[in-house]
């Protein structure tokens, strides 16, 4: 750390009441994202920050917002600060962080999310809390019905902007931004700054922003061991989960499935095994979700089966095991899942259970993350699937596509298919040989075939 870097909150010249709150929370040292963002934000700059949940990013926008409101009291205005988050759970979490930080002030905050009665919500908003933490859908509804306005808004935050857009909230977010007062300070947080939707949105939200990148997909996982275990099918995966939960060392674990039905099925199976477990998915009511989260936070249960939507942005202390019962469908989703563990200098373990139809997805996620998951087998619970016999250079399974035969019964191989195209001189551009779409675009041998590709060695079980 250089002399110019911050090492204590006190050096930020924060208001005494905020320092007292920080002290009560037991925070002595700003996290890297706080070190980078707080001085800039306290100076009034707009920011775009690349940081994940778990990095301490919430305080990086809550502290400057509260400091600003304490510096310039404005008792008779409407909403002064607005924080948009992708999910209700994250909104609740952020709202709690605001309450904790504003504990010694009179600044009020409320969440505006779906799942709560519209009228009750509107009534509470009339009490005029300075800060709203909202999900875009419900907030846009309030704007439509003219239950609130943002003419006095001084501070706008888009938290987890990439997810908000991935969840399809672009129109709502735009509608909200369009009615916010133009003279304001704004901050955008996103796990990935290369997200095209986020990039396109920035000029609409920020004014001469500073860009702070605190993590890359690769660096955010340094503390996490990532493994794969091959599996035959869901029943086999169920046995693997049973073994892992019985033999791994962990405080709390989260198991991801890709569908609600599977989450429920697995949760029931765990309950039959007398595991202290719960389930969290998008179709549950707000109260049900809250209840499960409380059980998990308090440690009454220590295993959560969840779908992606439900688990977005959750910050659960002591979570050190992530099991992907189903492989995430995209690299970013995988990152968000494994990012639930390995937080705040803790070591985490993330294990993906891979059936044959998930191999290629797993391989493409490895490429995206530029790492190779550790291959692991568990004695006594091995299945019959041993991974693809041959691999392409990309790490995907080779020759997985069925070969078609032509009318004469001879096999239509990639090479002779291209040759017949050449003979007939159909079209000017030569198509790539089938099944080699991920092959390097090396020189052609002149007869339409590709040079022999280097194969990756078959993965070894450890
Ligand atoms: P966040 O990324 O904002 O969700 O924060 C992740 C966790 O880090 C939360 O439980 C915070 O309470 C905690 N946290 C935030 N700032 C600090 C800090 N400076 N020192 C220790 N823990 C922190």
Automatic annotation (TrEMBL):
Q: Which UniProt keywords apply?
A: ATP-binding, Helicase, Hydrolase, Nucleotide-binding
Which Gene3D superfamilies does the protein's record reference?
Answer: P-loop containing nucleotide triphosphate hydrolases (3.40.50.300)
SMART domains the record matches: DEXDc (SM00487), HELICc (SM00490)
What residue spans carry the Basic and acidic residues bias annotation?
A: 423-432
Q: Which GO terms describe its molecular function?
A: helicase activity
User: Looking at the record, which segments are called Disordered?
Assistant: 384-462
Is the keyword 4Fe-4S in the record? Answer: no
Family statement drawn from the similarity comment of this UniProt entry: Belongs to the DEAD box helicase family.
Q: What is the name of this protein?
A: Superfamily II DNA and RNA helicase
State the organism of origin. Marinobacterium sediminicola
């Amino acid at each position: 750390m250089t002399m110019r870097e911050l090492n204590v909150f006190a050096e930020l010249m924060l208001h005494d009441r905020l320092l007292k709150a920080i002290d009560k929370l037991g925070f002595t040292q700003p996290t890297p994202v706080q070190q980078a963002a707080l001085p800039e934000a306290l100076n009034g700059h707009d920011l775009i920050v690349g940081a994940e949940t778990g990095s301490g990013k919430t305080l990086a926008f809550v502290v400057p917002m509260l400091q600003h409101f304490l510096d310039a009291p404005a008792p008779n205005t409407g909403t002064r600060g607005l924080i948009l988050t992708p999910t209700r759970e994250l909104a609740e979490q952020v709202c709690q962080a605001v309450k904790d930080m504003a504990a010694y002030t009179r600044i009020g905050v409320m969440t505006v999310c779906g799942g709560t009665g519209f009228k009750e919500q509107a009534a509470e908003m009339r009490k005029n809390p300075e800060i709203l933490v909202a999900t875009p859908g419900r907030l846009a509804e309030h704007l439509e019905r003219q239950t609130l306005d943002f003419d006095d808004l001084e501070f706008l935050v888009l938290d987890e902007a990439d997810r908000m857009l991935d969840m399809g909230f672009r129109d709502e977010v735009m509608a909200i931004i369009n009615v916010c007062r133009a003279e304001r300070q704004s901050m955008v947080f996103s796990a990935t700054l290369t997200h095209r939707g986020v990039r396109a949105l920035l000029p609409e939200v920020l004014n001469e922003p500073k860009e702070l990148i605190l993590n890359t997909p690769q660096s955010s996982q340094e503390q996490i061991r990532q493994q794969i275990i091959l599996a035959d099918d869901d029943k086999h995966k169920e046995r693997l989960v049973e073994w892992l939960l019985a033999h791994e060392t962990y405080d709390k674990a989260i198991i991801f499935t890709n569908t609600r039905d599977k989450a429920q099925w697995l949760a029931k199976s765990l309950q039959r095994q007398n595991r202290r477990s719960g389930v969290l998915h998008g179709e549950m009511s707000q109260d049900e979700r809250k209840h499960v989260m409380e059980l998990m936070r308090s440690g009454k249960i220590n295993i959560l089966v969840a779908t992606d939507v439900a688990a977005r942005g959750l910050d659960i202390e002591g979570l050190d095991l992530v099991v992907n019962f189903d492989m995430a469908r995209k690299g970013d989703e995988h990152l968000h899942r494994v990012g639930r563990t390995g937080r705040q200098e803790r070591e985490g373990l993330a294990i993906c259970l891979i059936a044959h139809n998930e191999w290629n997805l797993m391989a493409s996620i490895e490429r995206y993350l530029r790492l190779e998951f550790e291959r692991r087998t568990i004695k006594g619970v091995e299945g019959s699937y041993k991974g693809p016999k041959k691999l392409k250079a990309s790490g995907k399974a080779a020759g997985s596509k069925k070969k078609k035969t032509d009318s004469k019964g001879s096999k239509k191989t990639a090479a002779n298919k291209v040759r017949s195209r050449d003979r007939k001189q159909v079209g000017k551009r030569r198509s790539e040989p089938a099944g080699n779409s991920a092959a390097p675009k090396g020189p052609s041998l002149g007869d339409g075939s590709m040079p022999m590709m280097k194969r990756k060695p078959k993965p070894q079980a450890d």
